[in-house]
Specification:
281 residues; mainly alpha; globular
Length: 281
């Protein structure tokens, strides 16, 4: 019988998960509090959820936030995927490393610096184009910009895993550039593309610092609205809203797991088929 040994790693892992999830469950617990504070639980109620759905302004902001996140993640994924391919297929190693370095700098740059930079850029742009104002477009462009490096980092590893002999075999069989891209490269990169999309969506959904700088003209997002309301005092409607967003995030993670598992199986199957063709060739 195998003897179990004491592991500090397991203790550390449990501690980290407790530290992360206890505040979330504390917030969820008090979203059902009949009282108006988070100090004493006086009884169970659905009142805060009813108030949430009757708040038309907050519901409108939630819809705006999700539209922004879906749209910015979609555009960033398209640009980031082709950007990753451009970096990977750059022939000169120095140029390739320089492009990758520029991409990584945006990942580690503070959000405050990025937000202030975009504010200066859009202010200058507004000086030349009088019709341009801070609002949905400025926030969308900012979210696309800081999401692109995330997508690049998700897609690049899949490009490195791909066997280039598969592409050579396809070209030998008469495939043109578009057919190689549509039938070989993109299907193989699908798991990385999906991962990049979900990461970009998540970053856009909860971003506060960059959005705070570039929002305006009556447009706001959920994170900025929650910050504004929290400064006015505790509202358990925010707890209810945060609970629903947390549940949605869980569903998103579960959906991503099943989608990525299915696409990974298809990608492996397609890779084996093309490798067999390459060997025969």
């Amino acid at each position: 019988m195998k003897k179990r040994t004491f592991s500090w790693a397991n203790i550390y892992l449990v501690f980290i998960f407790v530290l992360l999830y206890v505040p979330i469950f504390y917030l969820i617990f008090y979203s059902f509090n009949a009282g108006g504070n988070m100090s004493t639980f006086t009884g169970f109620t659905w009142e805060h959820y009813r108030n949430l759905f009757s708040d038309s302004r907050l519901i409108s902001i939630v819809v705006q936030t999700f539209i922004l996140a879906f749209l910015s993640a979609l555009l960033a994924t398209m640009i980031g995927t082709f950007g990753a391919m451009a970096i990977y297929y750059t022939k000169k190693r120095g140029s390739r490393n320089a492009l990758l370095g520029l991409n990584n700098i945006l990942m580690v740059s503070p959000d405050v610096i990025i937000g202030a930079s975009f504010l200066i850029l859009f202010t200058l742009l507004g000086g030349y184009l009088k019709s341009f104002q801070l609002g949905f477009v400025s926030v969308l462009l900012s979210h696309i910009a800081f999401s692109i490096p995330i997508v690049v980092l998700m897609v690049l590893p899949k490009l490195k895993e791909m066997n280039d002999s598969i592409i050579d075999a396809a070209r030998d069989l008469g495939a043109n550039n578009f057919q190689v891209l549509a039938n070989i490269i993109l299907p193989f990169l699908t798991p990385g593309i999906i991962a990049g999309y979900f990461m970009a969506f998540t970053y856009s959904l909860d971003d506060f610092a960059v959005t705070f700088f570039v929002t305006g003209n009556g447009f706001t997002t959920l994170s900025v609205e929650i910050y504004s309301r929290a400064r006015q005092g505790i509202s358990l409607e925010i707890n209810a809203l945060s609970t629903l967003v947390f549940i949605f995030s869980l569903l998103l993670v579960v959906g991503y797991y099943f989608i990525s598992r299915d696409t990974s199986k298809k990608a492996r199957k397609r890779k084996r088929e093309f490798e067999e063709v390459a060997v025969l060739k």
